[in-house]
Amino acid sequence: MAESLPEKTITTQVKGEEETKEKDEQIIDPYSVGNTTGKAIDYAKLIEKFGCSAIVPDHLARIEKLTGKKPHHFLRRGVFFSHRDLDLILDTYEKGKPFFLYTGRGPSSDAMHLGHLLPFIFTKYLQDAFNVPLVIQITDDEKFFHKGDDKTELEQYIKYGIENVRDILACGFDYEKTFIFSDTGYMGGEFYRNVVKIQKQITWNQLKGIFGINESDNTGKASYPAIQAAPSFSNSFPHIFGKSKDVPCIIPQGIDQDPYFRMTRDVAFKLRYPKPACIHSKFFPSILGINAKMGTTEPNSAIFLTDTPKQIEKKINAHAYSGGGKTKEEQEANGANLEVDIAYQYLTFFLEDDDKLAEIADKYSKGKMMTGEVKKILIEILQNLVKEHQERRAKVTDADIEKFMTVRKMHPAPFKLAKAQAQAQAEGKETKEEGVKPEATMETNAK
Q: DSSP 3-state assignment of 294?
């Protein structure tokens, strides 16, 4: 493995014990997101503050060249806007070496909303484009540590996790390349060995500085960060990668999760593991305003995947913050402020037609479209999206969930297997998976 430098240490006092925040400071951490001025999140400042790098047009061109697929509109429009070591992952793929995807879900309720769906939509695109394995972590333990109380038992978060898996499977992930696990179900073996190694490398002062943990918090909060870090390392999954510890991963995530993986990258250097690469998304804003991400605490601030068409229509019409004029005359004279207009911002996420989006942006910003017209377009798109998701979700059975969450042998480099099978088929031969061996460093150790 090539030598790499330690990760730049960036500590953030997330709960504000020792830090006086400026009036206009952005609050971005794993537990809260917002801008105290009411302005939109400044993502250029976040790139500078967190020490990551911007995704640029050259990245998109290279992804298209390597995969033969047009980059997802989340990439084209800057929804996924920054990264750590994306270039190294593309180098790895170009050399024909394996990598894997890792993402996760913290099950705080049995109903996910559109903001929760975004990373899975994008991860599905990455899995299809690169044809690589994916591991999805369900952090039922983390939600119990942070949200659980005397009235909510651990078993409730485990149940939430299963229902969230049902929503995740409705996204259409490939069974042959996807392993989903809950922390309470998978903990043990090589995975737990990595957790222990990571925990030994993290000091109390680091946890306090990065996550704001204090002496009155339960010890689960202190132990958890290592659990979220462990899936970054290939030898946590011997049924996929055997004993190999040098297969890198890339993690699609909201930028608020970056503190976990800055820590993980620093630990990876100490353990001589590959640093996990990261690709960061912007926040999906609340219906009520652009300065905060969509959440579950205020029902009218979110579009839930369980919402009816009528509920969606009512939420957007009644509560979606408008950047348009207060009157028809004012809108015609001045146009809309697209930066703060929620209906337009949601279209940048879910209207896939680039030309149509550009037309709406031009007309709406110049006062040639009214807010009601833009909201009507958005409502139809969201109603169809949620309806189709609900239909797919209804077809996901308990047996499907059990299949995806069962430890089983998976090929560490399915893109190589597919290539070998295609070549064999062209030569008139029959090739089975058993006949295509992983690289020498990847011994099979399936459970």
A: coil
